[in-house]
Design goal:
Elements lengths: L2 H7 L4 H20 L19 H9 L8 E8 L6 H15 L4 E7 L1 H9 L14 E8 L5 H15 L6 E5 H12 L6 H18 L6 H24 L6 H30 L5 H28 L7 H21 L2 H9 L21 H10 L2 H16 L21 H11 L8 E7 L3 H8 L12 E2 L4 E7 L7 H15 L7 E4 H35 L3 H27 L10 H31 L1 H28 L7 H33 L18 H5 L7
Helix pairs in contact: 1-11, 2-9, 2-13, 6-7, 7-16, 8-10, 8-22, 9-10, 9-12, 10-11, 10-12, 10-22, 11-12, 11-19, 11-21, 14-22, 14-23, 15-20, 15-23, 18-19, 19-20, 19-21, 20-21, 20-23, 21-22, 21-23, 22-23
Family: Belongs to the resistance-nodulation-cell division (RND) (TC 2.A.6) family. MmpL subfamily.
Organism: Nocardioides exalbidus
Protein name: Putative drug exporter of the RND superfamily
């Protein structure tokens, strides 16, 4: 940021204008922020692209099958067997549930109704287990396009009705899963934010060792979150942006974590300048002038990296791109406007009890990171070779990373009600008839397609073929496996192979399990396309920032190496410590984008300072000064960001827990190992060569022992 612009933002009058402007914007956007949960779309079917086979099936069936139908089961269980009174109670419950708002005209299928239909030769599922211990009701809920938001209240009504004395009752099927998913994300707009802020406050208190200073970064982070979530709400409401509970959780975490990082960098530079300038307005002008380029570059890297997700086929992934980019951009703007204004308004006393007085000694010149730099400088090549070897060793854990997908039970870190119901159905050999395969085919070849699907293990006999428009027909068959399990995936793939092999049928296979299969296919494609794209755009940003080629290439290589090591270690933790069954197919892509975009931040913070000091001291001496000056603040920033992502583990979702662990681990590797050891060692070994083709350090003079041991002080 230009010196005059920086000064104008924090002048004696403009600081108050900035404060008033931000307060007005926050008040306006805060009204919309509270409504973000109302525009979430968490239905799996809305995440897939139009090119997916299951989406095409849904489109062809739209006139015959309502896409808003939610098959739901109420599962009853009694050890020793359900009594006649229990079965009678089920019939009464079915009649009462049928009268509830949202239950379709199809009514409720009860054991008695199924038995009567079977006696007349109708093809109906078995609703009572052979051992008599488990039975279930089947019905369909439909609340139109607002189904997701209406499910929790409907689930509460059904649970109030369905009860048996001495037995247990569970809500399962798609309706039960939707209710549990809503519970998993319940309070995400408040509980998660409060937990994150609590963690950050503790870390800031330890970092600043001031009972007052932490308030300003936290206040600015809250303001940024209100503005960002309000803006995202407007885009979701009026611009068709896909927002789900997952992206809202990541948005809040990212805003608070990144905002605190930017605040730490700016406050640290401001404290330095307060020791050099008597006037705090002048000190802030210099601090903002020096720190803003790193903050701009960091925010641009994360925002552009996130926007690369917009090229994803999965709508949920594509939607996260602009959501996260908006959050980071808003956060950056708040941290270079509101935070400087508040710091200048408050004055030096806000640093109490350790106020940085004019002409006092800069403590970082002889601190921990200055000592680390000196120890690396004696044998930099040996250091970076050894560090690289250890990180490559950690990458071997990638061979244990299983991204084939998770069953419904495996997707949560606790056992929800629908999972208990599904387990009872499985244990007592009852099929969950809410999970069906839907097949659309040309009418003339329908019989051949039905025959082709006969005998596929885990797939029931196809039901009646029903006509559609334009010479097309469709039918269903129940999948005897959990909707998102690997077993269901195998059944869908076998069914598609068989149906597609029928000449002239133009058969398409969809349904609930097929959605999960298509999600994996889209996730694999997105990883192949987006990962190289993110690397390319981040590299271009680094080249523009550092005005060099070699240094950006080195930084990108170190971040990719850090990503591999973080994922390798995480895979071992998932399997042997947490006991997770595997990972979501989209996990590697999300982890990659966050770790590359966020991990490069700390290298940006370091290397912009190295470049600044190189102009005066040369690359090697400048690297030691930069490490001494930024080491503490970057480590603190890394701890804050790692801790905020770990808060994702408080949500009972394996995907978010794994993402939080992987990003936290990767961030800590970046801040403590990659940035402080590996990058610094490479800088000291290569010297001025890292700036090629720039002539920034054409002398490329080796360090003398006296320079290594000299205090790490800068001159301005």
């Amino acid at each position: 940021m230009h010196r005059q612009i920086a000064g104008s933002l924090t002048g004696r009058v403009t600081k108050w204008l900035v404060l008033v402007a931000v307060v007005v914007i926050t008040g306006f956007m805060g009204v919309f922020s509270a409504k973000l949960a109302d525009v979430q779309n968490n239905e799996a079917s809305s995440w897939l692209p139009g090119s997916a086979e299951s989406t095409k099936v849904l489109e062809e069936l739209s006139a015959s099958v309502d896409p808003n139908d939610i098959p739901t089961l109420v599962v009853y269980h009694r050890d020793g067997g359900l009594t006649d009174a229990d079965l009678a109670a089920m019939e009464d419950d079915g009649a009462e549930i049928a009268d509830l708002e949202g239950v379709t005209d199809q009514g409720v299928l009860t054991p008695a109704a199924a038995e009567a239909a079977a006696a007349q030769g109708a093809p109906v599922p078995t609703l009572v287990s052979d051992d008599g211990q488990v039975a279930y009701l089947y019905f369909v809920l439909n609340f139109g396009a607002d189904g997701w938001n209406a499910i929790p209240a409907a689930a509460d009504e059904i649970r109030d009705i369905a009860k048996i004395d001495g037995g247990e009752v569970h809500l399962a099927g798609y309706g039960g899963q939707a209710a549990d998913s809503a519970e998993a994300f319940e309070g995400i707009d408040t509980n998660l934010i409060f937990a994150t802020l609590g963690v950050v406050i503790v870390i800031l208190l330890f970092t600043y060792r001031s009972p007052i200073l932490w308030l300003l970064p936290i206040l600015c982070a809250v303001v940024a979150n209100l503005i960002a979530t309000g803006l995202v709400y407007l885009l979701a409401k009026y611009a068709d942006l896909t927002v789900n509970g997952q992206s809202q959780a990541i948005l809040s975490i990212l805003v608070i974590g990144a905002g605190t990082d930017y605040a730490l960098l700016l406050v640290a530079r401001y404290r330095e300048e307060l020791r050099r300038h008597e006037d705090r307005h002048e000190a802030m002008a210099f601090a903002l002038h020096r720190a803003a380029p790193a903050i701009f570059a960091s925010a641009a890297t994360v925002a552009v990296g996130m926007l690369c997700l917009s090229f994803a086929e999965l709508n949920s992934t594509a939607g996260l791109g602009p959501v996260a980019a908006i959050g980071v951009t808003v956060t950056m703007l708040v941290m270079i406007t509101l935070l400087p204004a508040l710091l200048v308004i408050c004055g030096r006393w806000v640093f109490w009890p350790k106020r940085p007085t004019f002409r006092s000694v800069e403590p970082t010149s002889t601190g921990l990171w200055a000592k680390v730099g000196r120890s690396i400088s004696h044998r930099p090549r040996r250091v970076w070779l050894a560090t690289t070897g250890l990180l490559l060793l950690a990458c071997l854990g990638l061979f244990r990373l299983d991204t084939s997908g998770l069953s419904t039970e495996e997707s949560y870190t606790k056992e929800f009600d629908s999972i208990k119901g599904q387990k009872l159905l499985t244990e007592h050999d009852l099929s969950d008839n809410s999970n069906t395969l839907q097949v659309v085919t040309d009418t003339d070849a329908a019989a051949d397609v039905v025959s082709a699907l006969e005998g596929i293990e885990g797939l029931s006999s196809p039901g009646e073929v029903q006509p559609l428009a334009d010479g097309r027909s469709w039918f269903e068959a129940t999948i005897d496996a959990d909707v998102s399990s690997p077993a269901a995936t195998g059944i869908v793939e076998a069914s598609r192979d068989a149906a597609h092999a029928v000449d002239g049928a133009d058969a398409l296979v969809g349904g609930g399990s097929a959605f999960y299969v298509d999600t994996k296919i889209a996730s694999d494609r997105d990883s192949r396309v987006i990962m190289p794209l993110v690397l390319a755009v981040v590299l271009l940003i680094l080249i523009g920032l550092l005005r060099a080629v070699v240094a950006p290439l080195i930084l990108m290589a170190t971040v990719v190496l850090s990503f591999g090591a973080a994922l390798g270690i995480s895979a071992l933790l998932f399997e042997y410590v947490f006991g997770f069954a595997g990972s979501d197919p989209g996990f590697p892509l999300f982890a990659f984008v966050f770790l590359v975009a966020l991990g490069i931040d700390y290298n940006i913070f370091l290397m912009t300072r190295v470049r600044e000091e190189t102009a005066t001291y040369g690359t090697r001496r400048g690297s030691l000064i930069a490490l001494a000056s930024t080491g503490g603040v970057i480590t603190s920033a890394g701890i804050v960001l790692a801790a905020t992502f770990l808060v994702l583990g408080s949500l009972p979702l394996v995907f978010l827990a794994e993402l939080g662990v992987a990003v936290a681990l990767g961030v800590m590797l970046d801040t403590i190992v990659v940035r402080s050891v590996l990058v610094t060692a490479l800088n000291l070994d290569l010297g001025g060569k890292i700036w090629w083709p720039s002539k920034l350090d054409s002398a490329d003079v080796p360090l003398t022992e006296a320079e290594v041991e000299a205090p790490m002080e800068t001159v301005h």
